[in-house]
Amino acid sequence: xxxxxxxxxxxxxxxxxxxxxxxxxxxxxxxxxxxxxxxxxxxxxxxxxxxxxxxxxxxxxxxxxxxxxxxxxxxxxxxxxxxxxxxxxxxxxxxxxxxxxxxxxxxxxxxxxxxxxxxxxxxxxxxxxxxxxxxxxxxx
Length: 140
What we know:
Layout: E1 5-6, E2 12-23, E3 26-31, E4 42-43, E5 46-48, H1 55-67, E6 70-83, E7 88-100, E8 111-115, H2 129-139
Parallel strand pairs: 2-7
Antiparallel strand pairs: 1-2, 2-3, 2-5, 3-4, 3-8, 6-7
């Protein structure tokens, strides 16, 4: 991901569409490559919102590019603003309750289904912690 707009000197701002892809009591996660920002941590898939793109359009594009799946049913879940030392992010998080296709890491990333009740055992970027808490309150 790259900066969308500068937020002060040297502090890039990213608007990110995030998909919480669920089936029964499981959620689909991707492992960030070690060379990426927050590398080596599990994350909910998605990516930056481009230009005048809607959040849902950005999420659909990102899930198709990253996982080869198409959204069939999704609804807004929450928004999170988080300040990392090197950037600020606005996460627009959507609950993806129905999709078509079989998820696979189209960019070479590892993807896996995890039981929602076990998410606390995984390492996530700091900005993802409120998503984990919300999922565990909704599904467990």
